[in-house]
What does this fold into?
Amino acid sequence: MSQPKISPSTAREDLRTEPQVIRIVIIAIAVTFLTVFVVLPLVVVFAQAFSKGIGAYFAALSDPEALSAIRLTLMVAAISVGLNLVFGVIAAWAIAKFDFRGKTLLISLIDLPFSVSPVISGLVFVLLFGAQGFLGPWLQANDVHILFAVPGIALATIFVTFPFVARALIPLMQEQGTQEEEAAISLGASGLQTFFRVTLPNIKWGVLYSVLLCNARAMGEFGAVSVVSGHIRGETNTMPLLVEILYNEYQFVAAFAIASLLAMLALITLVAKTILERHLDEGRLPGD
Amino acid sequence: MIEVKNIVKKFGAFAALDHVDLKVANGELLALLGPSGSGKTTLLRIIAGLDWPDAGEVSFDGENALAHGASERHVGFVFQHYALFRHMTVFENVAFGLRVQPRAIRKDEAAIRARVKELLDLVQLDWLSSRYPSQLSGGQRQRIALARALAIEPRILLLDEPFGALDAKVRKELRQWLRSLHHEINVTSIFVTHDQEEALEVANRVVVMDKGRIVQIGTPGDVYDNPATAFVHSFIGESIVLPVEVRDGCVELGGKPLNISADGVSSGASKLFVRRHDMAIGPAGSGAFEGAVRHVRTFGPIQRAEVALSAGEGTTVIEIDAPRDRELQPGDIVSLHPRRYRIFAGQD
It folds into this structure.
């Protein structure tokens, strides 16, 4: 009996890869799925935005209400990303580099915003600061405006986006361990020198990555912000809120024009994320 | 002089260090040798200030070291996995200790560059100065870590398993290199190792640790030839261990008396330790043991023979190293007598 001769290379290829038909089918399914659920909606957003021409598009964007929404969104994102960056780095540093009582509890608390519906997150602040709320009477008496004003929107956004920075940095910092910090200290560095010269440079790509995701979520947040904003036109409407209002008023061009800005933010985020991920992998290469 | 007095360190219920005393003279090259979990790394970290003892004292030249944190002790520490700063070049790694000095005593840039160059020359790696740690081999990282630790002109150099992560050949080379480097710069050095060969070959003095205690301190020759306990005997160098019974100074194996003495060992179950090469082969009937050769392997100047001892009920198989002046054959009946041996009372 003669065995059919199979050259080693083809034998190996057969083992490692599926038959061509199956490959084509699987790829086709994936492409169709992505087209229907991701590419098409994106195309529709831009098609609708430009359906009455470029002039109408820019007119919609330069409307005072639209400009106010863009300004508010940028401001809220800047505040919440900035604060969450500081909180997140400190929390991740404490959790990854030190052992203390209640560490597990702290980690669970950081995760809380991820597991709570954004609407509930917003509602929490209504219950806390609202007229009938816990602190409401005192705030009213002292003429402090939190709900239906910028502070409320910022607070809700901070709450919803809080986990991004800490969650991205904790595993990264845990993986890097504390040896480099110990080395720095034994070489005479102070705590601050160690943090700024050793810890921070080691996590810089992780920080940028988390800021990017945090920012995308902060600008796109709808549920929590919707509850606390009060939808005052030209004052407390963020971009996502304005999209909904315009859409409900059948101002499709204007609604999709604003939506196209958010879609572009998503696309830019995606590209930046891909670039950062490459750097992050480089940074992960262990030192030994 | 480094002096460690009565150090106790507990991790939960586990005593990592149990009343440890140690003195290290200036210029010494000392090995802390022990199995994992013996507390040697913990002791090193306490001397460096990276861990704090629960009780006890640490002093450098009579000055209380526990009053200072790690950053003020001027201790060079080389980590097991080197802990090089991954985002810095080799040059910046070595320069780190000089750059973080308080402004009042910090050298200027030219002096820092000159010092780093000098250190990189010392470890013979100046050609790597613009590389990153991830681009270096294990042996190169090790030497850079050493250069970085030496940059601050430490009063003591501490090395945690300095050769642990390297392959056998590089390890051998680095051992000799470390010895000659120590000879050259003469800084008091302590290194931790679980490899007895490494400790005996590199150190001037060896401290053997077990279960958080120091069990023996001595020169490499001392701890090898005169082990203080059964643990040291079995941990350092390979030994033949036989369970024996001591009765009024006489030794019995499996109920059969051996004609060796056990002066000073209290009666009861004991263990007889003999180095493999200390078992002399003599004419039948002359030695302490009789046995049949089962298997012989020869390499280099020795032959290693498996010998089944006939001792009372059952047989015990031991391995001996014999010179090749008389070739052994499987089946030979031989008489063995220990030239040197130690008997330690107790079962373990």
Observations:
- Chain A has two domains: 1-49, 54-283.
- Residues 1-49 of chain A form one domain.
